[in-house]
Backbone:
């Protein structure tokens, strides 16, 4: 995290008004805290005590003393209580094998755990610090859907000393690149609480039966905890255009439209290498999207898992055919098999406006036509003959052909084709502000009866140029143009705009179709702290059933 502009959260409890925490990172224990696995562990230990001759009741009571211990310490303690001579290493191997076998039967999340982690992800870095073994911890977190939500997992395999030593918590803080003193740790055992406190973290004891647990706060479960964002402004930048007031950096509200008909809110957005180009990019993606109330997201440059992570964090269904494009939906989404990978993903999605065929597309980037703007329109034929231009045209044609096949297979329904087309629109290049050029790939969609949503709402390219790429490049580095589109057939367009960051005042601030996200926004290569984490603007659209 940047020391210059920390991104934090406040955690409050709806059941305990005096409970209020301020944090820039959160670290969780795993067993018994996030995952209901501690009962499995304690039952295993109780069985070992019964093997030593203790009664069932005494065995359960003795097992309670093993809460939070790593398997090595547990084996040593059991060996010390045994009348038999059994090597500690051998007993440890027995515990490891038996515990892993029991976990393989499946575990469930602890109450409130998934909801709290989802609320934190995208706000602050989140880690798990466990005394368990890496394989067991990863399997449990995956089993309850938490492994892909957290940023870092550190276990006994990563450190020299187990809890109550602070090593695993310090390792988690280092991996997150956060200050332990600004980190909150959630623990349910004395050993774990001692470890987190020794690491310098604020400790919250959850379901803490032992009065000796060293914690700053005690709660009975993770249920009822709410997370509020804080996005402080850096006072050292008050003279910079990037500095904003607190009000200006609050999340931008969703795009709305007045109608009695069922509506569908959607956003198409190129994530820019999955968020890797901006510091804490994946968290910032969630900051952008969390308040938008989008029913559908059309994402490009997912780079494998960015779409899936956003879906899990936002609670949306994910349809993704290859590494690049994804369609996310608040309702059901059926991924459709096509021959358009990796440049296009199709899904049938259920919406308030009925079933919709949704395409997320990212056409070929090579031979970008506007680079030769000075030669147009005279050299149009030569420009259109470039391999990249030919590829985009063929890809657009194939999406339309596959659309016809899919509609025949699944029945008639509205169609949305949205994404980064890497080509302008002939509507914009009309001979006034741009040369008169009839770009083939986008022309295909218009000829097939698709409406350009942004131009339906903003028909004048002079008043709303909508240059969606790249507002954080200087004009000396790259030309700017509208290459991100939402094309619609079978639905009415009610509202549309572009959301994002503009690093200068050349065109976006004067564009009536542009909404500024706010926060830090600088040109490449000084963009790492930008609050809007992409070089593309996001296209927001509201549609309604015809």
Residues:
């Amino acid at each position: 995290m940047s020391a210059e502009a920390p991104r934090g959260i406040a955690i409050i409890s709806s059941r305990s008004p005096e409970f209020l925490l301020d944090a820039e990172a959160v670290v969780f224990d795993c067993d018994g805290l996030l995952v209901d696995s501690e009962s499995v562990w304690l039952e295993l230990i109780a069985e070992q005590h019964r093997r030593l001759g203790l009664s069932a009741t005494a065995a359960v009571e003795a097992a309670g003393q093993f809460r939070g211990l790593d398997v090595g310490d547990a084996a040593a303690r059991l060996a010390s209580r045994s009348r038999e001579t059994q090597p500690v290493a051998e007993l440890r191997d027995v515990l490891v094998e038996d515990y892993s076998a029991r976990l393989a039967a499946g575990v469930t999340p602890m109450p409130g755990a998934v909801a709290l982690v989802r609320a934190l992800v995208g706000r602050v870095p989140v880690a798990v610090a466990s005394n368990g073994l890496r394989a067991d911890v990863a399997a449990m977190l995956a089993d309850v859907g938490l492994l892909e939500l957290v940023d870092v997992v550190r276990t006994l395999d990563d450190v020299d000393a187990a809890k109550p030593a602070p090593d695993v918590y310090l390792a988690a803080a280092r991996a997150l690149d956060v200050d332990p003193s600004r980190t909150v740790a959630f623990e349910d055992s004395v050993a774990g609480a001692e470890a987190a406190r020794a690491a310098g973290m604020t400790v919250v004891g959850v379901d803490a039966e032992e009065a000796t647990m060293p914690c700053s706060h005690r709660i009975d479960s993770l249920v009822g905890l709410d997370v509020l964002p804080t996005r402080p402004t850096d006072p050292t930048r008050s003279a910079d255009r990037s500095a904003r007031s607190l009000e200006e950096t609050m999340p931008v509200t969703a795009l709305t439209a007045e109608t009695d008909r069922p509506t569908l809110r959607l956003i198409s957005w190129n994530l820019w290498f999955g968020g890797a180009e901006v510091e804490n990019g994946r968290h910032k993606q969630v900051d952008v999207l969390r308040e938008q109330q989008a029913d559908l997201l059309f994402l490009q440059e997912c780079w494998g898992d960015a779409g899936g992570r956003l879906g899990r964090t936002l609670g949306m269904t994910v349809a993704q055919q290859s590494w690049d494009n994804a369609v996310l939906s608040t309702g059901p989404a059926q991924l459709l098999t096509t021959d358009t990978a990796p440049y296009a993903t199709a899904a049938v999605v259920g919406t308030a406006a009925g079933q919709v065929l949704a395409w997320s597309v990212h056409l070929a980037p090579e031979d970008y036509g506007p680079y030769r703007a000075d030669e147009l329109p005279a050299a149009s034929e030569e420009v259109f003959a470039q391999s990249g231009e030919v590829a985009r045209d063929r890809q657009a044609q194939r999406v339309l052909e596959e659309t016809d096949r899919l509609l025949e297979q699944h029945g008639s329904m509205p169609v949305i084709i949205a994404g980064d087309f890497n080509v302008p629109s002939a509507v914009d290049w009309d001979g006034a502000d741009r040369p008169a050029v009839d770009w083939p790939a986008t022309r295909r969609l218009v000829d097939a009866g698709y409406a350009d949503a942004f131009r339906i709402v903003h028909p004048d390219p002079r008043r709303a140029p909508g240059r969606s790429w790249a507002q954080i490049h200087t004009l000396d580095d790259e030309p700017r143009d509208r290459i991100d589109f939402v094309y619609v057939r079978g639905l009415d367009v009610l509202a549309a705009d572009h959301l994002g960051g503009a690093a200068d005042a050349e065109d976006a601030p004067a564009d009536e179709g542009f909404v500024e996200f706010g926060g830090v926004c600088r040109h490449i290569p000084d963009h790492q702290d930008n609050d809007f984490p992409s070089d593309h603007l996001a296209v927001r659209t509201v549609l309604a059933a015809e």
